[in-house]
Each structure stands twice: as structure tokens, then as C-alpha cells.
Write a structure and sequence with these properties.
Chain lengths: 193, 193
DNA sequence: GTCTATAATTCGATAGAC
DNA sequence: GTCTATCGAATTATAGAC
């Protein structure tokens, strides 16, 4: 009873699950929800389509799992007030280049209700608290967070989704130099009315 | 030979064509390319699906026709340098609320290559020339135009597509007050390096 | 745990009657 | 000019063998 613990009861399931998730992220990021078929994802992962169903139930479950990992959020406490803008833009761009989850989320969110709701969740749980930390008037917090999101997501849209050539060719330092003052202003400047 | 000209040789074709286009714009704007089915569009227009094929050949042709109308562009000559930003944001928001074409274009552009290319066309033919008019250094024109697009499309994305509540609730004057200085800076200010 | 086979829909597109 | 009927392809999802 004490000695024999078989090496691992589940044969290759963990590796298979991971391969499916990685392929799913790539496909969702490249094609959006509808055109990222379970068949294509399974083919990329080198397994049978029915395995996808077995592990994730249905296509919605697969998408939810594929975009479930935590991302972003430089912790608000570590940021000095005078360069929130720069820190935020830098961190945002780095996250975006690092993996496909954000692109998948944005592309799917444009045509799929579940995707849009997940994006709203990220906004609510990550951007709102950060704005709350730096904005004086609590009543202005949601609007300011939305403005920050509009600029950050707008750059991601033109750069990674629509691929406007000048937006693609912009190097990281240029993008940060231009956007940081904008984000800084949205978060900390008085209302420009 | 001279007297009898039948009221109209083509019975109702013109009205039918228009009804199809309007329904198509609404569906593409609401659902994106894949989920906006020809069947659903035909039903909205109150005609048979085969009529859509007869008039527009195939689904791609229908989409091209639905987003073919000219939009935007406040003519560059009429704008004073010191308030390009305000004028541009105001005009952009008005166009966006006025009809479904821009939302359709954005939603489709996120998952469909033809849609993305059409958006690039709008950028190239409408935003680039405008930036060329106000930017000193010709070499910086494309980047500045891309930055302007990123902010304007980013607001449209969060407001009309992803529907972040604070972005939706922003009224026009607030949006203009916040975004105008950003756009103004992207177009006319020196590079903030 | 993995795959084969297939059911059940749904969609774009075509042919042809009226 | 409009509609009926239908084809052929592709998709999600299931049942069951190994």
C-alpha cells in the first residue's frame, strides 16, 4: 500500500492539454472565433479533433480556457505618480508581444459576445483599480480608465490586428514616447473642459 | 414608338438593392463577417436569399458594396492649424453615430482580410493626406497619421464594439474635450523623444 | 487516452420554374 | 424580377471501438 505509486496514471493527458491550448491561442489570435475551427486547432496540436471536445467540452469552453491565464497588471503600488504613463505603455506593449492571448482576446471580442465580456472583465479588474490609484476625483475614475484603454487598445488594434504599415513599423521606444504622455494625462491631469 | 415608355422597365430592383444593402450594413455591423449570413440579411430585407446572389454575385461582393460609400474627410483646407484636433474628433464621432458603415468596417476588419484591407485604404486615402497637411517633417507623416488613427479607432472600439460601459456613457463633449488635445499633439507637436 | 465513423446542422451557391 | 428546391461543402458534436 505504501510503496507502489505508478509513475503517472494519466498517460500523456497533460502534454496534450497544453498542446491544444497553445494551438488554440494561435488560431484564435490569427483567425478570430468563427474561422478558428476545432479541426484546424487539433491538426496544429497533432491530435484528433475529438480530443478537444473530450478535454474542453465544446468550443466555448476551449476559448474560455485559452484566454484564462492572468496577464498584465504592473502592481499599482510600485508606480511613481509622475511616470505611470510610461510604465503602463511599456508594460502593455511587452505583454502584447510576448504571447498571443491579448491578440486572440481582441480579435474574438470584436465579433463574439463572450470575447467582449472577457475584455470587459480585464478592463474592470485591471485597468479600473489602477486608475483609482492615481485619479483624485473618484467620480472620474471610470471615464479615465476607459480613455486609457481606448488609446492602448487602439494601438494594439492598428498594430497587431489591422496591421496599418506605419503602426507596425513603429518601434517600441517611439510608441512609448508618443503614447506615454497621453496615458499620463488621461490618468492624472485635470479635466480639460 | 414615341409615346409609350413603360413606367419603369425594371420593376422593383432599385428598391430591393437598397433594402439589401441597408440590411447588410446592419448585420455586418452587429455580427461581423462570418455570422452575418446571407440568409439573415435577406430575411431582414424581406426578400429571398437568392436575390442577394443575383445582385451582388457572392458574399464578398455584397460586403464590398455595403461598405463602398464615401465617408469621413473634413476637407483639410478648411481647417485651422490650431484646432485640427477638435475638428477631427468631432467629425469622426458624428460620422460614427450617423450610420453603421464604420462599425461594420471595424468589426469585419478584425477577422476578415478584405475588411482589414478596406480599413487600410481609408487610412491611406483619408488620414494620411490630412496628416501631410499639418505635419512639418514629411518623414514623420505616416507615423503621426497612424497614431491619430490608433486613438480614434481605439475610442470607437471600446465604445461601439466592445461596449465598455464608461466608454459608452461618455457624452460627445467629454470625448472631444479629452481626445482633441491628444490628436492635436500627434499631428502638430514635435516628437517627444 | 486516442481515434474512427457518423449524426445533425448550417451555410454559400446554383438551376430552373413562373 | 422573384421565388422554390436543392446541391455540396464545412462545421460542431456524439457514440463507440481499440
Amino acid at each position: 500500500m505504501t510503496s507502489s505509486k505508478p509513475p503517472a496514471p494519466r498517460r500523456r493527458s497533460e502534454a496534450t492539454r497544453a498542446a491544444i491550448l497553445e494551438a488554440a491561442r494561435e488560431r484564435f489570435a490569427a483567425d478570430g472565433y468563427e474561422r478558428a475551427t476545432i479541426r484546424a486547432i487539433a491538426k496544429d496540436a497533432g491530435i484528433d479533433p475529438s480530443m478537444v471536445m473530450r478535454y474542453y467540452g465544446n468550443k466555448e469552453g476551449l476559448f474560455a480556457a485559452a484566454v484564462a491565464i492572468d496577464l498584465m497588471l504592473p502592481d499599482p503600488a510600485s508606480l511613481a505618480r509622475e511616470d505611470v504613463g510610461r510604465a503602463l505603455v511599456t508594460h502593455f506593449l511587452a505583454q502584447w508581444e510576448e504571447n498571443d492571448v491579448l491578440t486572440a482576446l481582441l480579435r474574438v471580442g470584436a465579433t463574439n459576445e463572450a470575447g467582449a465580456e472577457r475584455m470587459q472583465g480585464v478592463f474592470r479588474e485591471q485597468v479600473l483599480p489602477l486608475a483609482r490609484r492615481f485619479c483624485p476625483d473618484p467620480e472620474q475614475v471610470p471615464a479615465r480608465a476607459a480613455l486609457v484603454s481606448s488609446q492602448l487598445l487602439g494601438l494594439a488594434l492598428t498594430r497587431y490586428v489591422l496591421r496599418f504599415p506605419p503602426a507596425v513599423e513603429l518601434d517600441t521606444e517611439e510608441a512609448v514616447a508618443w503614447l506615454a504622455p497621453t496615458v499620463q494625462r488621461y490618468l492624472t491631469a485635470p479635466y480639460p473642459g
